[in-house]
Amino acid sequence: MEILVIGGSRFSGKNLVESLVKKEHDVTVLNRGNSEQAITSFYKTEKYDYPKKVEIIHADRTDNEQLSKALQSKKFSVIIDTCVFNEKNIQAILDFAPKELANYVMVSTASVYEEETLMYYPVSEDEPLGSEAEEGPLPYSRDKRRAESLLKKSFQENNFPMTIIRPTYIYGPYNPMYREFYFYDRIMDQKPIYMPGHGDILTDFVYSKDVAWLLAAPIENKKAIGRIYNATGGVATTLKDYVKILSKIIGKETEIIHYDPEILKKEELKFEDWKLMFPFMYNSHLILSKERARIDLGYQPTPFEKGQKETFEWYKKVKNPEWKGDYSLDIKIAKEISGK
In degrees rounded to 5, what are phi and psi of residue 91? Predict the structure, then answer.
């Protein structure tokens, strides 16, 4: 099967491309070709060598001429899009997708759900989404909702074949976000974890390999056409227990110090570097249902501790020797809550 992967140069995309090649699909990857420059500083830059059979197209997806040429370069049966950010991205796909297309798989996000009105957990794919209005604190979530809406409308009105995948927090090797590594650094350096709030918030995490599996699964399953699936680890843990689990894996204990997140509004605690701040929501639960993916696709997520052990072993091998955790915000928080 001829498959185009848009993105696919790092994180879950690596696992996706490799799994598709193993299944003997003909894989083409479209990206801008500058992922090496975008790599994060907390692990060593490693040039990714695609499997030999993979064809690479360098193009800017926001340039309609380049995108049209790329989409029409082969008779693609499937497009898997790992980097949709807004409805313009979707409109371009609708305008230029090959007529032979059997399915278009879009990566969305769990943040499309309306967190403030959720009353039942785990959250199913049928729960209401948040606002698409221009105002709001999270343009990323709003734009993903708009992209989803346009794609769903095209399916309903024009039978455009599509599947939407909504991941919760993704963890794993090559993570460009400083999330699990935020905790690895502090635990390894014997630094306390300054946790906003009480830490009893239940949170759901999904392994990058499982996201890749879910992106590939709809290719050969007609049940997935027109469907939306959560990408979830299948279990949830409190933020406090999350730290305890990582401490157990690393083999070092760490202290958790709770504080009132309202203090972060103070001028002296403002920060510009996102890597300094606690990386997960600390005031609302995030627990997604895996049942639809299990029933339709046979999805079985990786056990959380297994995935984290594999991720930590990878991180130890590739951690940038020049990388030092920045605990400057932690120090400011410590002074603020001690009153000194």
Answer: -60, -40
Contacts of 180 (CB under 8 A, 6+ apart): 171, 246, 308, 311, 312
8 Å CB contact between 151 and 144: no
Q: Sign of the CA dihedral 309, 313, 316, 319? A: negative
According to DSSP, the residues that pair with 171 across neighbouring strands are: 207
pTM: 0.95
Q: How far apart are CA 170 and CA 175, in angstroms?
A: 8
- Entry field: residues in the chain: 340
What is the residue type of 145? R
Tell me the CATH number at 140.
3.40.50.720
In a domain, 246, yes or no: no
CA 332 to chain centre: 30
Q: Is residue 251 part of a domain?
A: no
Q: How far is CA 175 from the centre of its chain?
A: 9
Domains of the chain: total: 1
Position 323 in a domain: no
Each residue of 248-290: pLDDT tens digit? 999 999 999 999 999 999 999 988 898 999 999 999 999 999 9
Residue 208, CA distances (Å) to 42, 168, 203, 310 in order: 18, 11, 16, 11
Those residues with Cβ within 8 angstroms of residue 114's Cβ, 6 or more apart along the chain or in another chain: 127, 128, 129, 130, 131
The residue assigned the tokens 């794609």 is: 151
